[in-house]
Specification:
heterodimer, A: about 475 residues, Rossmann fold, 6-stranded parallel sheet, 4-stranded mixed sheet, 12 strands, B: alpha/beta, 8 strands, globular
Chain lengths: ~475, ~240
């Protein structure tokens, strides 16, 4: 499915996703599998809950002194011969990476999966500057071939069925491919091996930056991350500033819960600790290492209402359990980060106006907060965003009028009861037997697919006098 | 507390609860002038109006020894959100007192009164849907199950995906009706797969959603409030 533009209202984008049978099949299989795997992983790990609490404490403590930990990280990366850049905005981050690419004379860049580089739309900028970006994570490779964007934080091609991937490979690579994951992976691997050897630049994100050692940590499953960080002459890592953690001991806490939350693995297949450029006597590693620290709205939330979202590990567990995400997938959200946490991150990056509709793309069921390895209270912040949108009058006036009237009525019981009586009269033409099948106005949205109960002939409070008498007998 | 949906749409559920509680020897009062706990306003971000609703409710129920709420979401609102909405220390203290005396119906029956035995008002197989606020807000999954499992004459079966949302979500159901209905379809398919006579829940919102969907698809399965299933017996403990 092509990705609908943001000019289309969210409700329509979601509607298109609901009608896409391939997407529905792919989402249902993948999210159910992720949910089961995560549940099993934590069921066999009794210390998991305590470690989740510990992980959250570490994040909180680190955010309290973010400047201190970042300075330490910078000092230690530089002491190991790396270069550190600070990017206040996405634009600055792009310019820094392009500058590194230009000075390296790079024509091709291989990339390990990274949401931070998606966030700053780096691939488009590289291509425009004459550097061909090549995604080397299998999922990212698939969606790059399809000219799409990731629809999940850790499973970028989750929206595609294996049949669709086989068709895509046949069409784009000119190779007859069967819809068999093993066959498809082998094809991608062969294609990518060449690119690793040709590329002058390797670009990654960072799952963690360890301040005490200046180590960048990459959590991957395909081994492509290692190739990206060791084969090309220059390695650039783009890392959100909130990804810094104080120590290696802390890293152990996060690694114990991250893969379990994301894919249900005890650990990911590869955990790469990148210690800067190759030093004298070492046989491997890049000649140059650059770390780009990305702010892009994060620091502004240190004391803001979305602060908790800075603890996010980008595991994607909240997407898998979200009833809305499971129905519509990631593209309908329309921004880099989909799902419940994505709504918060979008507001962080682009302001709360940008999530006027998305703030309501949740039933507030709380499954996300339950699944989150660091227990981010996502529903609470969604409500905060809704509050911001209503108080700053960004919400539509019709909505504000309806809720204004409701609030006013709730303070006036006689009028509230009168409204029920009036409703009883007005509903008469619509009642069919014991239900209402169709009504006009906003409740008509309800009755498209569901019957509505009519207002009772006598409300409970109207019956109360009789009930009270009955009780005295 | 009757709750707005209970008052206007499901008064027979409230009546059953009153009779049930009386049968257990509980003196039941229903303060006049109840409207709504303010949860719809709170969830949609209208917090000044939600605070006004909270203030009213706290005043209305100030004297009650125990407040029993037949909906998990309203109970959650009173217990978890009122104190935060009311900033004046005296009001906040009153809200905290109310919160500590408020219980959802199944919790009141099992945890406060130690009652477990009822007869089933419905013959046959029953299943249970965990409403989100009762399960994840109030961390309660046991009390409704304890009551349902103990029903002679009924067979209790677990619902696949029992902890997944039904798609109601208050105004969510009319803001994004297509998504809400798709979530509901999945829930109802799970309900129908159990071959139960009825799916039981402890929240008027979920019941409105599930009933609305079941009746639209002309399903013989019913969605019932817990109180509609429990029939008092002479020796309830």
């Amino acid at each position: 499915m092509s990705e609908p533009s943001l000019d289309t209202p969210f409700r329509e984008r979601a509607g298109r996703a609901l009608r896409d049978s391939f997407l529905q099949e792919a989402l249902s299989i993948a999210t159910t599998k992720f949910i089961d795997l995560r549940r099993e992983a934590f069921a066999g790990f009794p210390g998991g809950d305590a470690l989740r609490d510990r992980a959250r404490e570490i994040k909180e403590a680190t955010l309290q002194r973010l400047d201190h930990h970042l300075e330490r990280l910078i000092d230690n990366v530089e002491a190991r011969g790396g270069h550190v850049h600070y990017a206040a905005t996405a634009d600055e981050a792009r310019r820094i990476v392009l500058d590194v690419a230009r000075r390296a004379g790079a024509r091709m860049a291989v990339k390990s999966k990274s949401m931070a580089t998606e966030e700053i739309h780096l691939n488009e900028a590289l291509a425009a500057a004459g550097v061909t970006p090549v995604e080397t994570d299998l999922g990212e490779y698939i969606i790059q071939l399809a000219h799409e964007r990731p629809s999940h934080i850790i499973a970028p091609a989750i929206h595609k069925t294996k049949g669709q991937v086989a068709e895509l490979f046949t069409r784009e690579l000119g190779r007859e491919a069967e819809p068999d994951p093993e066959v498809l992976t082998r094809i991608a691997r062969a294609e990518l091996r060449e690119k690793f050897l040709q590329a002058d630049l390797g670009i990654t994100g960072a799952n963690f930056g360890v301040a005490e050692t200046g180590t960048i940590v990459l959590v991957t499953n395909e081994g492509n991350g290692r190739m990206v960080t060791s084969l090309p002459r220059v390695h650039v890592a783009v890392m959100g500033v909130e990804k810094v953690i104080p120590s290696m001991t802390d890293l152990a806490v996060f690694l114990a819960i991250l893969a379990k939350s994301a894919t249900g693995q005890k650990l990911s297949v590869y955990t790469s600790l990148v210690d800067g450029p190759r030093r004298g006597g070492e046989l491997e590693g890049p000649e140059e290492f650059h770390l780009v620290l990305l702010d892009n709205g994060r620091v502004g939330q240190l004391a803001g209402p979305l602060r908790e979202a800075l603890a996010c590990l980008r595991c994607g567990a909240c997407l898998n359990v979200c009833p809305v995400y499971r129905q519509i997938g990631g593209h309908a959200y329309g921004h880099t980060y989909p799902g419940p946490i994505g709504i918060l991150l979008t507001a962080m990056l682009n302001g709360s106006e940008s999530v006027r509709e998305l703030a309501h793309a949740s039933s507030l069921c709380g499954a996300c907060a339950d699944a989150c390895p660091v227990r981010i209270d996502i529903p609470r912040m969604l409500i905060e965003l809704r509050r911001d949108v209503s108080e700053r009058r960004i919400a539509p006036w019709t909505e504000r009028a309806v809720f204004g009237l409701l609030g006013w009525l709730l303070q006036r019981p006689p009028l509230y009861r009168a409204a029920a009586r009036i409703g009883r009269v007005l509903q008469r033409p619509f009642v069919r037997g014991a239900v209402i099948r169709r009504v006009p106005l906003f409740l008509g949205e309800w009755t498209r697919t569901r019957d509505l109960p009519p207002i009772a002939a006598r409300t409970f409070q109207e019956r109360w006098a009789d009930l009270e008498r009955e009780g005295r007998r | 507390m009757v709750t707005c949906l209970g008052d206007v749409f499901y008064p027979e559920v409230g009546e059953r609860i009153v009779r049930l509680l009386r049968h257990l020897g509980v003196a039941v009062a229903c303060p006049a002038g109840q409207t709504c706990c303010g949860l719809p306003l709170f969830n949609s971000g209208y917090h000044a109006a939600a605070a006004a609703a909270a203030r009213r409710t706290v005043a209305l129920f100030g004297d009650a020894e125990q407040v029993v709420v037949p909906s998990g979401s309203c109970a959650w609102m009173v217990k978890h959100e009122y104190a935060g909405l009311l900033r004046v220390p005296r009001e906040r203290a009153a809200a905290e007192r109310l919160a500590s005396r408020t219980l959802e119906l199944s919790q009141f029956l099992v945890r406060r009164r130690g009652v477990r035995r009822f007869r089933s008002a419905v013959a046959g197989r029953l299943t249970y849907h965990d409403s989100c606020h009762l399960l994840r807000g109030l961390h309660e999954s046991e009390t409704p199950r304890a009551l349902l499992r103990g029903l002679p004459g009924a067979e209790f079966v677990e619902l696949p995906g029992c902890d997944e949302c039904c798609g109601f979500g208050g105004s969510f159901a009319v803001r994004l009706p297509e998504v809400s209905s798709a979530i509901l379809d999945k829930k109802l398919a799970n309900v129908e797969a159990t071959a139960a006579e009825a799916v039981v829940a402890c929240d008027a919102g979920c019941l409105m959603q599930m009933r609305g969907g079941l009746s639209r698809r002309r399903s013989p399965v019913r969605a019932l409030h817990l109180a509609e299933v429990l029939e008092p017996v002479d020796d309830p403990r």
